Each structure stands twice: as C-alpha cells, then as structure tokens.
Amino acid sequence: MGGNNPLRIGTIAVGNIYYIQDDGWWRDRYRGAPICRNPWVVEAFLNGVYTAARRNPDTGRWENLYIAGRSDLAIVRSLRTGRRQTVTVRLLQLADDEGHHRLWPTCPDHPAAHLVERYLNRRRHRHEPLRKAA
Predict the structure, then answer these.
(1) What contacts 66, CB < 8 A, 6 or more positions away?
(2) Which are the contacts of 36, defined by CB distance < 8 A and separation ≥ 6?
(3) If 0-12 CB within 10 Å is exposed, 13-18 middle and 19+ buried, where does residue 77 land?
(4) Is 108 helix (H, G, I), strand (E, B) or coil?
(5) Relative to the CA of 73, which of 65, 103, 113, 132 has its CA 20 to 30 Å away?
(6) CA 93 to chain centre
(7) Handedness of CA 17, 49, 90, 34 (dihedral sign)
(8) Taking 70 as the threshold, does the pLDDT of residue 2 lie above it?
(9) Rounded-to-integer distance, Cα 133 and Cα 130, Å
C-alpha cells in the first residue's frame, strides 16, 4: 500500500498509485473529466543532477554531479501494461493536487480487542496436550 513515508522526506512516497493524464489534458482550458483507466505506480526516484558542480583540475572543465535524495524525476510502472516511464515529480504533485490518485482505506492503529482475544484463546486451545488412549 502506498503513502507510507515514515521519514517524512519528500512529498511523494514510493508505491503511490496515480492516474497520469496525457499532455493535452493539462494544456486544454476546458479539460472535462480525467481518464482514470490507466493506473501507474511509483517505483523509484532517480538521483538528482547538480550541473556544473565542480571543476576538474586536470582538464579545467566543469563537471556534473549526481546527488542522491535530490530528485526531480521518478520511474513509474503501468499496472495495466507493465511499461515503465520516467516522469517529473512535479507531474505527480499536480496529479496529487487534482485528486488523480488512488485512495486507500485507512487502517486502524490498534487491532480490535475482541479479535485479539479470540486469536489468543484459539492459540491456547491448540497447545493443550492431547490425551492418548491406553
């Protein structure tokens, strides 16, 4: 289930499911209803590129660095076809703002007491020694 982000890093969690719209839907002034037939799941985030970050002393040229945790791109996989695609995190944030994501039911923090008691009672009865016939 997506949405679990215990470290509170970033705004999008891996495992979230979105309905990504095509470019024409975002550009159209009178958009209409979004198409919610093709779900995409967020699989990973690519490392960010810090352009012209340092100068190479041997060549005298500026080099780019790849920095983990500073990502502008995400890898998403279609749950319908299995195709992978790279999208910007901003597009996922827009989809989140527009409500084009899959809502999961909330789970309670603590299990129901009567179910726990029933489970423990069943375990006690299983471990009783069996009497053997003489």
Answers:
(1) 47, 48, 49, 50
(2) 19, 100
(3) middle
(4) coil
(5) 103
(6) 12
(7) negative
(8) no
(9) 10
